[in-house]
Design a protein that fits this description.
With 70 residues, the chain is mainly alpha-helical. The protein is built from five helices and no strands.
Length: 70
């Protein structure tokens, strides 16, 4: 009988995922993700949402990528 959990050491995702290791990059990527999702749901512009989130969180401005013209 083998036990997968017994063999593998458990580490938090924040220690194993390279995208989560850099806190500044993580925050910027999170704002970009939240901004684009919110824009789809609300119809507001991504740049406006990103600017608002950036101001609220007091971090560096986020560059938004040009996406499709939906």
């Amino acid at each position: 009988m083998s036990c997968y959990d017994c063999i593998m050491r458990k580490k938090p995702l924040s220690e194993t995922n390279p995208y989560l290791l850099d806190a500044d990059k993580f925050r910027k990527d999170l704002i970009t993700s939240v901004s684009s999702s919110t824009a789809i749901e609300t119809g507001a512009k991504v740049e406006t949402i990103a600017r608002t989130l950036t101001k609220e969180l007091k971090i560096m401005p986020v560059k938004t990528r040009q996406g499709s013209g939906r």
